[in-house]
Write a structure and sequence with these properties.
There is one protein chain. The protein is α/β, with parallel strands linked by helices. Helices cover about 45% and strands about 15% of the residues. Strand 5, helix 9 and strand 6 form a beta-alpha-beta unit.
């Protein structure tokens, strides 16, 4: 089993590993944890997220914030953000992710970048991450120039046809071109997929893993599919937790030096889901403690009754015999 899982180079080997269960799955997770600990010891990067805006121009069929959604839109005020950053910094956060819907309006972008510039000048040892969607080359360069170091842009699926089904306002080729552009500009890039999408095949998931390996990026992730009740996929079946955890473990074995989060989506599917993510080799925890509560209720990626991990996730890190860290250098 050890030799089988340590190879994982061909699509056939990856497909076989994705389907393991029982004692074979336990062995897969054990090897994933060993691969993680050899690189990172027991450290888990603890990030906070500020959900800056739910304004979005994309038409993603799985998301409750897509352009056609009836939700009330918001953009956080400067003072709201600055108070939040100050509180998070005093709490020990050294990595803060700014997450938004996709919006490229000049006034919006200028407001955001001005704010990020103020933050970076005041907190020079703070690592800023962006999860802002597809922007222009000039906008990416501006973000990099003001000091944003990391950027998250998930490809969602490596299957061209499936991508067009779930994101009819975009294409996989365009999305990948943005990922390569971000790398070229100098960002530390994160990407990844959604496991359990309608019409997704096991072979497609194997291709997702091979693409993550090929991208040669320092951060990667998978989110389990959640049928958002404000999306076109309301009422569909959620993704399979074991398949998602197997994906995480294989990603860790294939890319041992990668930062891999245990996502809040796991907790929406099964109790202790984020703990299981650490068991499968994850080494990043994102605390949802940066967005004012009344606004956070309107940032509906997965479903309306959000799970927002805060202090409980820090306890889970201890339960997994891991140690929280303010930042892990890449």
């Amino acid at each position: 089993l050890k030799n089988q899982f340590c190879k994982l180079r061909s699509k056939e080997e990856i497909v076989e590993a994705l389907l393991v269960e029982g004692t074979q799955q336990e062995r897969l997770f054990e090897l994933a944890r060993r691969a993680r600990d050899e690189v990172f010891s027991k450290r888990v990067e603890v990030r906070s997220v500020i959900e800056y805006s739910n304004v979005c121009r994309q038409a993603c069929r799985y998301c409750g914030m897509n352009v056609a959604s009836p939700i009330k839109r918001y953009i956080l005020g400067d003072e709201e953000v600055l108070r939040s950053v100050d509180r998070l910094y005093r709490a020990g956060r050294r990595v803060i992710m700014f997450q938004t819907g996709e919006c490229v309006m000049r006034s919006y972008f200028e407001k955001l970048t001005r704010l990020l510039g103020i933050i970076k000048k005041k907190y020079r040892d703070l690592t800023l991450m962006g999860c802002l969607g597809n922007l222009s080359a000039g906008q990416y360069k501006t973000l990099r120039q003001i000091g944003m170091e990391r950027y998250i842009l998930k490809f969602e699926t490596s299957d061209t046809g499936l991508y067009k089904q779930i994101k009819p306002s975009d294409s996989l080729a365009n999305r990948l071109s943005h990922i390569y552009l971000l790398k070229k500009i100098g960002f530390q890039v994160s990407s990844g997929n959604i496991t359990g999408l309608p019409s997704q095949t096991i072979g497609s998931l194997a291709d997702d893993l091979l693409l993550l390996k090929k991208l040669d990026i320092p951060m990667g992730s998978t989110s389990i599919f959640i049928p958002n009740d404000l999306s076109e996929y309301a009422g569909y079946q959620a993704g399979n937790i074991d398949l998602t955890l197997n994906f995480m473990a294989i990603l860790r074995i294939m890319c041992p030096a990668m930062l891999i989060p245990t996502t809040s989506s796991l907790e929406l599917v099964v109790k202790n889901g984020q703990y299981l993510g650490f068991c499968a080799g994850a080494n990043v925890a994102t605390l949802h403690d940066g967005t004012p509560k009344i606004k956070a209720k309107k940032f509906i990626i997965y479903r309306k009754d959000r799970y927002e991990p805060v202090a409980s996730l820090l306890k889970i890190i201890g339960q997994a015999h891991l140690e929280p860290a303010g930042r892990i250098s890449l």
